[in-house]
Amino acid sequence: MKYYIGLIHKDSDSDYGVSFPDFPGLATAGASLNEARAKAKEALAFHIEGLAKDGEPIPQPTGVHQIMSDPKNRAGIAISVAAPRFNTSA
Question: Is the pLDDT assigned to residue 3 strictly greater than 60?
Answer without folding.
Answer: yes
